[in-house]
Amino acid sequence: MTPAQPGDLYRFDTAEAVRAWRAIDDRVMGGVSRSGLRHDPAGHATFEGEVSLEQNGGFASVRSAPSPLGVSGALDCVIEARGDGKRYKLCLFVVDAFDALSYQAEFVPAAHAWDVIGLPIAAFTATTRGRRVADAPALDPARIRQVGLMISGRQAGRFALDIRSIRLG
User: Fold this and answer.
1) Residues paired with 144 in a beta bridge
2) What would the pLDDT profile of 101-134 be if each residue is shown by its tens digit?
3) What is the mean pLDDT of residues 6-21?
4) pTM over the 0.85 mark
5) What is the arithmetic mean of pLDDT over 79-105?
6) Nearest CA to 147 among 67, 49, 27?
7) Is residue 109 a contact partner of residue 129, using CB atoms and an 8 Å limit?
8) Is 11 helix (H, G, I), strand (E, B) or coil?
């Protein structure tokens, strides 16, 4: 196991790192998409599943259990990932509620190669139920309580995103 570094939100080098994550797919509104986060013995996690547009669906996501994760003064969120050519969103939550305001930033990791992607904290947009919330306060990185990964935007079909780590810097 790699020792934690300052600002680490999640390192996925052990099976324990994925146990507190759960799927929240479009099934919550009648869709049929499915996803999950699993540990790969090669030392990373894989967010995978299938997005379906049937029954007005179209998104799949996973979210960590609530815990104090924030780092005061962080300027960006860095994710080390390997993609499949699809667009993903990193979602950050400052409250513990299930149906909470989410701060999201979109990213497209390199396909089939490890990539380190820096997402400025200022670039995270407040959303609720997929809609932008114009009057929401800016994301305060010290208040982060949950982290999520999402695929949406009518990207139907199978997907797989490998993740080694998510950290604040």
Assistant:
1) none
2) 999 999 999 999 999 999 999 999 999 988 999 9
3) 93
4) yes
5) 95
6) 67
7) no
8) strand
CB distance 84 to 52 below 8 Å? no
Res. 97: pLDDT tops 90: no
Which residues, in sequence order, are bridge partners of residue 167?
Answer: 8, 78
- What structural domains does the chain harbor? 8-168 (2.60.120.430)
Beta strands 60-63 and 22-23 are antiparallel
Query: What distance lies between CA 100 and its chain's CA centroid?
Result: 14
pLDDT of residue 3: 44
* CA-to-CA dists, residue 43 to 1, 133, 164, angstroms: 9, 37, 7
Q: What is the dihedral of CA 129, 23, 118, 162, to 10 degrees?
A: -150
| DSSP, res 16 | G
